Amino acid sequence: MGGTFDPIHYGHLVTAEEARFQFNMEQVVFIPAGIPPHKARKNISHSSHRLAMTRLAVGSNHHFTVSDVEIKRSGPSYAIDTVRSIGKEYEGWEIYFITGADAVLEILTWKKVEELLQKCVFVAATRPGFQLESLGRKLAHLDRAYSSRIKTMEVPALAISSTDIRRRVGEGRPIKYLLPEATEEYLYRHGLYKF
Questions:
Q1: Does the pLDDT value for residue 40 go beyond 60?
Q2: For labelling, which of 12, 67, 109, 189 has a CA lying 20 to 30 Å from the CA of 51?
Q3: Measuring CA to CA, which residue among 117, 67, 68, 66 is closest to residue 96?
Q4: The predicted structure's pLDDT at residue 145
Q5: For residue 142, what are the CA distances in angstroms to 21, 81, 126, 134, 150?
Q6: Does position 64 have pLDDT exceeding 80, yes or no?
Q7: Residue 39 — very low, low, confident or very high, per pLDDT cuts 50/70/90?
Q8: Which span out of 9-18, 95-104, 121-130 was modeled with the highest average pLDDT?
Q9: Model confidence over 144-166: pLDDT tens digits?
Q10: pTM for the predicted model, two decimal places
Q11: Residue among 61, 62, 142, 67 nearest 108 (CA)
Q12: Are 6 and 116 a contacting pair, CB within 8 Å?
């Protein structure tokens, strides 16, 4: 499961657990992005903070682990490079790439998308208010072999976003119960999102 995780929150964790259950996965590897090529926001928290918050958040689930593969890599974090690396590390395993359905809508703009779709199955997790039909229309012209490599999954209606959490912290508003307590304590201790 890739993401900026700035910060990681319960929406991410519920999505990962639901994907693990629905697709009978042995393990979910959370991979905080190093330098996300599709993110317009330039003031992303330092990767060491995002990695630490992710580790704190997933620590209580023995099916979850964290990889720093993208953070260690220099330059932009392209999904194809990460999937190649994970494929080597977990040789012989079927690789799933869990992300939001809104991100999958942009998949046609991703680097080496055909190779990416050959190497992994995408799990497009829906967020509250997202219409799956729009995903189907957008990807309708993909080759049938590739479109079968994109699965959809509905998650419980948690309208939580990292953007809202950052905004709330910046405004001095509460964030309790939106993210794991250890992650909340970490971001306050390090003064993150105080604009």
A1: no
A2: 109
A3: 117
A4: 63
A5: 27, 22, 20, 14, 11
A6: yes
A7: low
A8: 9-18
A9: 667 788 898 888 766 788 999 99
A10: 0.88
A11: 142
A12: no
Which residue carries 């629905």 as its tokens?
22
Tokens 């958040």 sit on residue: 57
Record the tokens describing residue 133, joined without a space.
């039909």
- Token readout for 143 is 């080759």
Which tokens belong to 100?
A: 């939001």
